[in-house]
Amino acid sequence: MDLTPKETKSELSQSKTTEQRLKFFMQDVTGRALVMMENATQGQQGIAMDLVQEAFISLHKSYADKAIDEWYPLFYTILNNKLQDWRRKEARRAQPFSLFKKISLDDDSEEILEIEDQQQLNPFDTLDQAVTIEEIQQAIRQLPVRQQQAFMLRAWEGFDTQTTAQIMNCSEGSVKTHYHRAIQGLRTALAHLNPHIGGSSHEE
């Protein structure tokens, strides 16, 4: 499964038909999208695949005429919405008497840290070569879902803070906070594997 950040889109742009462009787009993004959904659903591969496939179908149905560059944020916005819908259904299934109660899933209302926007982070830059993809993925899976999303969208997909906020339907301050805490959480979770990482940073 491809966990590397997306490369240049020049190859995608060379395709002429919508089907060809969509095929290249799916090949480019599917691996990372599946990883994100598997993490968010605690390893439920079937659910993750369904969410990604549904997002592709919706993208093709509603935005087939858009440019390749526009597909990336659109796709992840659709995928985020489908994930949130699934999480709400799961929460209601776990709380059968909450039909008329508002289900709150996200922690965007938590205290927003006054921190500068952090530079793009390649997850492999600060980790020892001995740390495996599986160990990194397991550490990401332990993070709260919104921290997972902020980290994956910024570090793997390369979206800036503004675009990530639009995809996640939250403020830029929330994205910065989620991303900052995700990095701290990953450093803490993986510190025993690489003593050079050190503890969490204090950038508040």
UniProtKB/TrEMBL annotation:
**Which sequence ranges are marked TM in the entry?**
none
Q: Name one GO biological process term.
A: DNA-templated transcription initiation
What is the protein named? RNA polymerase sigma factor 70 region 4 type 2 domain-containing protein
Keyword Transmembrane in the entry? The reply is no
Organism (species): Acinetobacter brisouii CIP 110357
Query: Which keywords appear in this protein's UniProt record, sorted alphabetically?
Result: Sigma factor, Transcription, Transcription regulation
Write down the Pfam families for this protein, in alphabetical order.
Sigma70_r4_2
Determine the domain of life of the protein's source: Bacteria
Lineage runs:
Bacteria, Pseudomonadati, Pseudomonadota, Gammaproteobacteria, Moraxellales
Q: Can you tell me which family this protein belongs to?
A: Belongs to the sigma-70 factor family. ECF subfamily.
* InterPro entries to which the protein is assigned, alphabetical: RNA_pol_sigma-70-like, RNA_pol_sigma-70_dom, RNA_pol_sigma70_r4_t2, RNA_pol_sigma_r2, RNA_pol_sigma_r3/r4-like, WH-like_DNA-bd_sf
Offer an example of a GO molecular function term for this protein. Answer: sigma factor activity
Domain (RNA polymerase sigma factor 70 region 4 type): residue spans on this chain: 134-183
